[in-house]
Amino acid sequence: MALSGVLIPLSLILHASGEGHALLIGSILWVLLVELLNSAVEATVDRISLEDHRLAKRAKDIGSAAVLVSLVNAAVVWGLVLFF
């Protein structure tokens, strides 16, 4: 969350095309959206039951993996826009 507060203004300062700015900001907003959905899944799983269950663990792990994929996507987008 805090990093997005730095990266979004930074993306507007960088010398990129209009499409580049849109990609930079969009990739950060995508990470925030996926993180919010992951938090919702975790809260729902915790609300249903606090006991350990393999399906609850799997749901949380998949949500965390989605956040990781969105972060990798953002890193690739930023790398491509900044260096190509």
Detailed description of the structure:
The chain is mostly helical. Helix content is 87%, strand content 0%. The protein is built from 3 helices and no strands. The chain has helices at residues 2-13, 18-48, 54-83. The model has no long low-confidence stretch (mean pLDDT 95).
Summary of the model, kept short:
One of its GO terms (biological process) is phosphatidic acid biosynthetic process. The protein is mostly helical and about 80 residues long.
Look at the structure and give the mean pLDDT.
Answer: 95
Q: What oligomeric state is this?
A: single chain
Shape: elongated
Helix coverage percent of residues? over 70%
Q: If classified by CATH, what would the architecture be?
A: Orthogonal Bundle
Number of distinct helices: 3
- The overall strand count is 0
- CATH domain class name: Mainly Alpha
Q: Give me the secondary-structure category.
A: mainly alpha
> DSSP strand (E) fraction?
under 5%
Output the CATH topology.
Helix Hairpins
The H/E string reads HHH
Structurally, the number of domains stands at 1
- Flag low-confidence runs: none
Rg estimate, integer Å: 16 Å
The major sheet is characterized as: none
Report the end-to-end length measured between terminal Cα atoms: 27 Å
EC number: 2.7.1.107
Transmembrane segments: 28-50, 62-83
Enzyme class: transferase
Main location: membrane
Which helices and strands, and how do they pair?
Blueprint: H1 2-13, H2 18-48, H3 54-83
Helix pairs in contact: 1-2, 2-3
Family: Belongs to the bacterial diacylglycerol kinase family.
EC number: 2.7.1.107
Subcellular location: Cell inner membrane
